[in-house]
Amino acid sequence: MAKFEFSSWLLRWLRSRETFEFVWDEGNETKSKQKHDVNTTESEQAFYDADVYPLGSQIEPEVNEPRFGILGRTPAGRYLHVVFTVRTGAIRIISARPMHRKEKTSYEQALRQE
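The chain above was modelled as a monomer; its predicted structure follows.
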């Protein structure tokens, strides 16, 4: 399982954006749907959650390009964990899945602290 290091700039970046641009490659467009029953629209919706929680920068395992993680909720109420990278200003989602119980607890605790 990937490990993340909190980055305050990621929180500021996420909250400062009104819109996001997304790019999808053929493999990633269907991977999360097949593996976790999370479609592309839901993956993108997590970024628009007013309470989006940034996990930060991925530190393990090592990867070739910077990866980031967020916890967010869709308008339908699904709690998602999304891993992504940013290429020329656009978000490329690598994977999206439902949050594990511990992640959901962390997300909800962060909401209570705000």
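The radius of gyration is 13 Å.
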